[in-house]
Amino acid sequence: MVQPANKGEQSASGPEQHTIIALVEDKPGVLTRVASMFRRRGFNIASLAVGRSERAGLSRMTFVVNGDMETIKQVTRQLDKLIDVIEVSDISTHQVVARELALIKVTTTPSSRGEIMQFAELFDANIVDVSTSSLVIEITGGEQKVNSLEGLLRPFGITEMVRTGLVAMVRGQESGIDLENLGIPPSANGLIRMDSGI
Amino acid sequence: MKLSGAEIVCESLLKEGVEIVFGLPGGAVLPLYGAMANYPKLRHVLVRHEQAASMAADGYARATGRVGVCSATSGPGATNLVTGIATAQMDSVPIVAITGQVPRGAIGRDAFQETDVTGITLPITKHNFLVMEVEDVAPAIKEAFHIASTGRPGPVLVDIPKDVLLDLRTEFVWPDMPNLPGYHPPGAAPARQVAQAAELINRARRPVILAGHGVLISQAYRELIELAEKAQIPVITTLLGISSIPTAHVLNMGMPGMHGMAYNNLAIDQADLLIGLGMRFDDRVTGRLRDFAPNAQVVHIDVDASELDKNVKATVPVVGDLKQVLNQLIPLVQPTVHLDWIRRLDELKAQHPSLYIRESEELLPQYVLNRLSEVAGGDCIVVTGVGQHQMWAAQHCKFKEPNTLITSGGLGSMGYEVPAALGARMGRPDKTVWSVAGDGGFQMTMCDLATAVENNVDIKFAILNNQSLGMVKQMQDVFYDREYYAVEYSGNPDFVKLAAAYGIEGMRVTRKEEVDDAVRHAMEVSGPVIIDFVVKSDEQVYPWIPAGESVHEMIEEQPARGGPY
């Protein structure tokens, strides 16, 4: 049934975090087009991750975007409008696997090192570098998990941190974006090929 | 046979049915010009400034419905195209711009006349290409034309480095289909959405149609009239929707919004249903969104999904090609007469006669346009610039056929009137073309009078000369306490002598009695003519809803002493 119009008002729901995935052509300039659209329309990207997909010539992007439903709808429609963007899906309401990787460099002392390593172990994180006064911890997981470890390590002194941003995939048989249903031939390829890709 | 990249461009343009290319050569694009010389079917029109090339391509496209083509060299040539490209983007006009680029090896080295034109035009084109291999030239042009002309049309730029244009390694292979896996312009709409739209229309007691540029683009004029007549729904046309339905049609109410008819803004205020057809609820239409159409539900049909819910939330959003959607919708709409509503609107029209031109001894610009339209007969093409004269043309000119008002609505590009008229007349040599200009805009692009003269393009220029930037002056009058600053033109040229300098006829009109004869005479003369209408300089455009305000703040008439406050 149709709902009464609610013109020009912000929707009642406040800002939320949405995970949006996009399948895009692997061509030079695609990332610029996407980034330029976000900038120009004033949308707020919390994180963005890009990489090759299972199909040559196509990349997948995962966006985490802050905004109310109206904003998110605009984001997906504006993304979809870009010629190089093949398909867009807001997977926030789906069952998803969402992961990011972080490298965290923590200051250590002989007395704190053990405690820090215990925390790492609790979080299934790896110690990938050790020096007399620091550790580099590699953690993979959902955003909350990474946030938690970050929070625990902060009092020890984080001197450097890098996070990849979330990558996400819908669980089970269902696909966020189904190449077969889109009728994309296996050879789908960009018009302008450059080695650099995106 | 192996062809050069430049020859492949020419072959591709011929495949797309291109007849005219508006452009100006330079170093990086020279190979293309060398090739074009050997393709007599491609007529190159040499402009005096590249802005005229992109705007002429735009005018050509709007007048004909076909893709307009322009070309320029790298660097300043390409950047000069930019205002015309942005104009086409804002108004959904299909043009293809082909630019030369510095050779591949020089890209990124700040070479002479190098600019990153694909970067510059990224947000103002529907799409653009930097073609780095000669085998990609034909596919890029195929895709450029396809993208420009389908769905919601728009400008596409194809940037080709000089060494790619010179590359002689390949044969010309024209692809059967564009390879665009991410591009699927919508056709018909889902039946459920159309049924919901019909349900709202059938239930509405006070509906209005807001007809936009989409009606003209999808050629849904017949369907618009059919829908309006079947359910007796008044039609309000946005600035770019003007000429989608004849001015004289009994259901045509004219323009809404900032300088629209007061009764239209009141009608929208009182309506219980807005049916937006191929329009985008621009701020010049809506004013303050919070106060726009407070009593109305909204059916919004557009080919561009991102327009739905962008400014005004649609009760029923419908994505699809307007012509196809209307053909789905019309059978579901019950014939009806909204007798009370139509009567109410007639009352509003009587109480708020927005088109009234007061008696005056002076030469009023509204009077000039009213007479020009009357004498010219309403079947000419009117091309305008931007500002007061544009609004008066939209208010007072009458239109009989689709695509006969050509104006820069979204971007509001002054100077559009000269080159767009050039393109319109070259695309429609069967039509009289009137370029209605302001003295401000005319001087931005009048260098391309030379192009009109050189190609004997028969344009009638009507300059509404108030020796000022009238619209800005009007705003300073009201919002800046009549502190006129940087709006008065005391050094205008003598436009009659200017005409003589270009070897064309010029006339000056200062009195009301001279208007009809001047217009008539201009139309009898073969070739371009300039009429300098020296109009009352402090005349202002009304009705007026100041920017960001609503129908409640509408000022209906010019106050006796100038400013309304």
Explain the overall architecture:
The complex is a heterodimer of chains A (198) and B (565). Chain A is of the alpha+beta class and 198 residues long. Chain A folds into two domains: 16-93, Alpha-Beta Plaits; 96-167, ACT-like. Chain A, domain 2 (Alpha-Beta Plaits). Helices cover 23% and strands 35% of the residues of chain A. Chain A is built from four helices and nine strands; from the N terminus they run βαββαββαββαββ. In chain A, a hairpin with a 5-residue loop joins strand 2 and strand 3 (58-67). The radius of gyration of chain A is 20 Å and the shape is elongated. Chain B has 565 residues and is α/β, with parallel strands linked by helices. Chain B has three domains: 2-171, Rossmann fold (3-Layer(aba) Sandwich); 191-351, 3-Layer(aba) Sandwich (Rossmann fold), CATH 3.40.50.1220; 365-541, Thiamin diphosphate (ThDP)-binding fold, Pyr/PP domains (Rossmann fold). Chain B is built from 23 helices and 20 strands. A six-stranded parallel sheet of chain B has the order 3-2-4-5-7-6, with helices on both faces. In chain B, helix 13 (283-286) links the parallel strand 12 and strand 13 (297-302). In chain B, helix 3 packs parallel to helix 5. The longest helix of chain B has 15 residues, at 50-64. Chain B is globular, with a radius of gyration of 24 Å. The N and C termini of chain B lie far apart (74 Å). The model of chain B has no long low-confidence stretch (mean pLDDT 96). Chains A and B meet through helix 1, helix 2 and strand 4 of A and strand 6, helix 7 and helix 9 of B.
